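Would you mind writing out a protein's amino acid sequence and the numbers that encode its backbone to help me picture the idea?
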Amino acid sequence: MRTYLVTGGAGFIGSNFLHYMLGKYKENVFLINLDALTYAGNLENLKSIENFKNYKFINGDICEEKLVKEIFSKYEIDYVVNFAAETHVDNSIKDPFVFLKTNAKGTLVLLEEARKAWLLDGEKDEYKKGCKFLQISTDEVYGSLGKEGFFTEKTPMAPNSPYSASKASADFLVRSYFKTYKLPANITRCSNNYGEYQFPEKLIPLTIKKLLDHKKTPVYGDGLNVRDWLYVKDHCSAIDAVLNKGKLGEVYNIGGNNEKSNIEIVNLIVDYIKNNVDPKVSENLIEFVKDRKGHDRRYAIDSSKIKEELGWSPKTKFEDGIKKTISWYLNNKEWLENIESREYRKRKVK
C-alpha cells in the first residue's frame, strides 16, 4: 500500500483526483487529504468516500509547519501531491498577499518537511526509495500567447497576475529543491480544467448557475480570450502517470487539445440549457463586462512530451466532456445552489 499526502483535496481538481485514485487502486492506496477548507474547499465533494478506511481528512493549512511535520511523523508518506493553492485570478488582484503566502510559503513548508522525512543520507542526498513530490501548477505561469504557437516545457515563465506569479514562485522552489537537495520531484502544468465539483467562480459552473437563475451572465471584454480546455478526469489520469513514470526533475505540460474562446463556451452552454432544460434561456442573458486587469489573451498547451515519454493523452472529446459536465451540474442543483454556504461546505468538520 502506498500512502499519498494530497493537499487541497477538498477543492475541484483535488477531490476529483481522490475519487480517481480510490476508483482505480481500491484498497491498495491510503490517501490523506490535508485541506484548510477556504471558500472553495467543499467536503460535499467527498461525501461518498468520507468513511472509506483508506481515506483520512485533516482540516489544516499547508503553511502550518507544526501540523505538516506531525503528519510526516505519524504517517509513512510516499507521495506528496500538492493541489493546495489560492487560484482565482480576480481575488489575487484584490489581495495578492494571501496568494504568495499559500502558494509559495505553503509549498516551501511541504518541500522542507518532505525532504527531512525522506532523507536517508544527507551527505549523498539519498532518499527513501519510491517517494516523490508532485507540484500541480498551471499554464498561466507562461504568460500569454499570440494567435500562433503553443506553450512547451521550455517556454520561459512570464506570469502576468499575482496568482500566476505566486504559482511560478512555487515552481521555482520545487525546481530548487530538486537541483540543490536532489529531492525527487516533478512539476505538472495544466490547461483550464472543467468538470464536476468546480466552484462557481469559474466560467462554466458560473454560467450554468446564472442561466438557471435567469440572471445576467458576465463575459470579460469581447469574450475572445482563448483557453485550452482539459476534462478534469483526464487531468487526474495524467497526474497518476507522472507519479508512476515521470522522470525525476522534469516538468510535464498537460493539455486537452481543445482551444475555445470564452464566448464560444458561454454560447454552447446557453444553447444546451435552452434546448434541453429551459426554453426561456437565451443569448440575451449574456452581458459583456469590463475586462479583467492583466487578462491573458490566449493559452495553448503542447502536450507532446508527456505523450511521447509517458504514453498519456486526453481521452475525452470536448463535445462529450462538456455535455457530461453540464448534465452533472443540472443533476446536482442542490450542490450548485448551496456551494457558497460556509455551513454546507464544512459539514461535519470539528
Remarks:
- The radius of gyration is 20 Å.
- The chain is about 40% helix and 20% strand.
- The chain has a mean pLDDT of 94.
